Amino acid sequence: MSSLDYLVALLQVGIQKGAKPMQTFSGIDDVLAEMASRAKSKTTGSISKDHQLEAVCRFWDSREVPSFRDALLLSWGLCLPHHPMGPCVLEDRPRLQRVLDRLDSWNDRPPAYRRLYQGLIRSYFTYDALSDSVSPAGRSNWELLRDYLRHRNDLIRDAQIKPEWVETAIGNRQLFGDNPCEPYVKALLRGDVGGIDHLCEQLGIGKASWFLRELVLAQVRGATQLGDEQFKELIPRLLELLANNVVLRDRGLALILNRYVDVLEKPLNQRLRDASVQWWGNPWLPSSETRWGAVVPEARTMVAVWLKLEFIETFFTKLAEDGLGDRRRMEFWKRYVKAIEPIEFALGSTARNSRERDFVMLRDKMKGLICDLDASGANNAFIMTMGDLVVVEFSGIGNALYGYDSSKLLPFDSTKTLRLAVNDPNSLKHKLPHRVLWLQHQDGIRGWEKWEQMFEATLKQEFGINPDAAIVSGSRPIIHSSRSNSDSYIGDVQRYSRTALDIFVNAHGFHIEDKSFQGGCLWVRAGVDDTHISGVLTHWGFHYKAGKGWWK
Predict the structure, then answer these.
(1) Measured between alpha carbons, how far is 524 from 501 in angstroms, rounded to an integer?
(2) Measured between alpha carbons, how far is residue 356 from residues 359, 361, 477 in Å?
(3) pTM of the complete model
(4) 496: number of CA atoms within 13 Å, CB side?
């Protein structure tokens, strides 16, 4: 075989194989798609802070941006102080403007310019211009950067394959406007955080960014625009967001409370009550005045009522003697919650010193309202002020109610250790003439079937205090035994009736002996030491007999 024939034979094999049809391979499309996806998702990695700082220091002294590398490092390092405790480029208007002008020299080359633009985005979301500690100049310069990013948003687009973050930045151009958070509120209120997570990942928005913080407040504002039922359903989520955001907590809570006062009937919301008291303190304490001043008066009153209701329930259940609840007293005083203004708790040794979790939490919530009571065991006292009337209820079963006139010198000082023995120094229990009210929680006495009826009538007729009503300014003053001339207050005494007499006598702890059914007289066993009592009984037609009392 000649050399030529040998060559022909070799080529013939290749010709035969080449004549066969090529097999299709669909996997190549998947490979190409994956390569394109990688190209689009490619983002600039973390740029060394040291290199950024070196570029910032060079620029601070020279005000020159000699290379693309310097421009790139500066775009990422606008927030870095050029020396410890010194300003950053973003806080110096001439230097910031110089950087932005220099970056514009690359805006006709999208692949290069968008790397600079990406650095500016990071600086924009990093600098906390919305903080109270930022200077007006810093805020103004940050707004300049924001406008720059918005106006040049289209310049990072080109016909080539673009990184995914570019599409994200172009598709969310409102991020560089006055309302950057608004488009995301509805999804977040539904609990859908996927969009925000993707946004932060693509644009490099850190967890400490002002943007994520402002998103919280935007959700609160959005929720307050919804109907009552939707708004109430979102309150637990909103409070959870605010609990983790101390900076916006006060502003967010104020928005929620001011909206809640418009909810129909304003039903008790325990989470809102507890969060309000935990973050701002008791709404009626002077020490809490500043924070509570951020809400409308109706909101403050609303939470105060909620808190007083809780305290009333707690006193007559948790703090009751031997742990036995007194639901009748609890339900009675809950009806007067709007009339009760300042309240205090005189706690005995058990409630004051117990390390039980419930007692610890209770004392924390009652902070600023607790007085020391020199009493052992479960003895406690609840001090309520209604206008000029100071009412003291005791946790022990069988204790009567004591009432005092706060417009006069009270017989006890709650800033000092209180006592329980009758007429002892600084005791909560005093006889006449110090007290103006003494009522027993006993049914079937003084002509009343239930003690609640007797209490309600006494509070209304003697002191002008009504259930489910706040104290009216300038309401009826308490008539004092210190008045020397009975004629001076006769006009304050209501017309005589047996009901009025029962209430009056019961309020002062006297005893009625009615012998009129036997042809005798109606007796009030009281003395003449108190000019007020003498004046009222005289006005009602009673006569005094020494050693026996008043008769009619």
Answers:
(1) 9
(2) 5, 9, 43
(3) 0.73
(4) 10
